[in-house]
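User: Could you check the structure of this?
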Amino acid sequence: MRSKGLVISFNWIFVLIAGGLILAFFYSLARTHIETSTVKTARKVVSNFKIVLKTALASPKTVKKVKIPDFGISFYCRDNTSYYSVKGVSQDSDLDVIFSLEKFKHETILLVIEPWILGFQVTNFGLITSKAHAFIFLNLTPEMALLKAELPEELPVFVYNQSSITSSELPKGFDFYTIIAQKPKGFTPNPTNFSTPVKNGKLLVFDPSPDFFNGTVMFYKGSKFNAWIAQGSSGFVGLPMALGALFSQDKQFYDCNVRKALKHLQVVASVYSKKVWLMTSSTPFSSDCSLIYSMTSGFAGILNDLKTFTQANELLTPTNQGNLASIAKTLTFTNQVAVGSACPPLY
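Assistant: Sure, the predicted structure tokens are below.
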């Protein structure tokens, strides 16, 4: 009897072990199937978004709504590495200039395309946001009104006719806040002069030229410790680049895309330099037109200045942004002179 009971006990143990192994097998199989299905879906989402992005970037001055699946989508841009990803499936975006927050949940994102023009068009910027991202303007000056006017109507933009704001005064129901102010003349204020810290947001303090074509922007990042973290200042040239600061997660994300924009500028300036060389070597010009295309004070010299600038500077800073702005304005003026003098324009 004792031996029979022992056998029954071992049988039960065997059944339990075998049952556990079978359950583990089917659980592993189901998990593998789910993970494989998730990866396939993520790859499809990334592939579709790549097509949407490339198509949109070819159409300046447009706003496109893109539905994001349950997985959400993330954007990364640091130093010389940039990509977007869904559930670990990523796509390099090293050539695309995309100013964006880092993460978007299951929602509709807005893809705003702005051309970056420095006389000629350099490239198109992709500005990505959603209606969960609020833009807060403080004390709207004539200069800041120029910036606000460039934001699409679809975005949640709020204007407060006051120089500072507290977190309790911010509109409710948003995931991220960008607070925008202008630096007062004559002194550098503390960030708390503009706003109490917002952990899910950033503060931008602009010091622009009167036409808002160029200037500097100071970045302050909110933290979970209820404090503003100063990230330093960057330069901008062109209103679309200033908009890039509004759409970016932080200073690092902004600088990363400015670096890519300057690489585009270097390539385009080289192409136009080749065009000038071909035109001057194959077309007989009048003395006036020859001067407009010359290396001393004409297109050849201006384009050489552009190439020299991009070779010497990877980023736009408070000290060098004025140089690029000056070159761009000289290029625009020279092209206008060419048209007025009945000479072939550069662009």
